[in-house]
Amino acid sequence: MFEICGDLCTHPSTPPWETGEKGIVLTSDSPRGNRPQLNIERPSYLRQSFSKTISETETKRMCYTAGTGSGLISQGTPKRHLVYRSFTPAMHRLSNAVMTELKKHFGNDPDVDISDATNMELLGYFDEKGIRFHRDQRYNRSGDFLSHLNSQKKNTVTMILVVGDERELEFQLFRRKKKGEQCQGHVKVNCAGSSVFFKMKHGSLFILHHKDEKDMFRTAFTEECRTFFMHRSKGLLKKKGDGISFSLVFRCCVHIKEVWKDTGLLVLTEREIMEDKGRWDKFGNKEYLQEYIDGNSVHKRTRNQKDKEDERMSSMFFKMKKKYFNDNS
């Protein structure tokens, strides 16, 4: 586990258009149309994507791709910045180990499709980073799985392996708003057991069952309507200092894309490139990222801020490694 996290944290970060099997891939995002933010700056967790290869040529490979939470692409990230790197040998070994645990606990569950994990997302929590309430998979009001809106395979689970400092995962029961009801989004269901908290400690393996997120009648809570659970994490329990926590999230995905072998960037058509430019260039995403790469003192940063952030990420990793792996190297 520490090998996977170390490959990211102890090597220089790179922009998505540069070749690099190691180090954090930087992106410049505009979530929900806001001003540009680097993925290491935005309040949401840091996300790095890895996938198994289906087939490959000399320059390209076909692979499975996962979106952010439910959906087919990452929210707020230009398509030109989306990177899916290949599984490393360590990821293959860890994926096999996680699948062994899944089969042990859910192998006899008729509601669970035990398909091999095709993707791993490494989620980093540090400083104030967290994630708002969401579902990993999308359903309609009747509880039908929406294949056209999901990158994850139907009836599969999400497997989350925790590395590093403790954080908390909160599950909250919701219902859809009724016709004519004056409210935004979904409505919380408040009753005994409708809010559940899990301690995400180092070494924990958390398995999210797909039925937890499905719209269905849960008579133990209410008989009036279908309900579903959403989850969120407010990040580290101890936010001060240089704490860091990782989720190694394994999924079976069915959404397939072609990427460039040297960078992992999506292979886009001319039309997709033009649409992407039209949507994102008004925010100045690429320029914002380039200024950071060049070390310029703009956007309230000091000069050479990238080097300082890379050093800090490496320092946080080595402190975590010493604490949880008893390793001073």
Q: What does this molecule look like?
A:
The chain is α+β, with helices and mostly antiparallel strands. The protein has one domain (2-325). It contains five helices and 17 strands. The chain has helices spanning 2-9, 89-106, 270-280, 285-294, 305-325; strands spanning 28-29, 37-38, 46-51, 53-56, 60-64, 84-86, 119-126, 131-134, 158-164, 167-175, 187-188, 195-200, 205-208, 216-217, 226-233, 244-251, 256-260. The strands form four sheets. The chain has a six-stranded mixed beta sheet with strand order 6-3-7-16-9-13. Strands 8, 10, 11, 12, 14 and 15 form a six-stranded antiparallel beta sheet that branches. Strands 4-5-17 form a three-stranded antiparallel beta sheet, with no helix packed on it. The longest helix has 21 residues, at 305-325. The radius of gyration is 20 Å and the shape is globular.
List keywords for this structure.
329 residues, alpha+beta, six-stranded mixed β-sheet, 5 helices, 21% helix, globular
Strand proportion, as a percent range, falls in 25-35%
Q: Percent helix among the residues?
A: 10-25%
The number of helical segments is: 5
The largest sheet has its strands arranged as 6-3-7-16-9-13
Low-confidence stretches: none
Number of domains: 1
Quick one: how many beta strands?
17
Order of helices and strands: HEEEEEEHEEEEEEEEEEEHHH
Main pleated sheet: 6 strands, mixed
**Outline:** globular
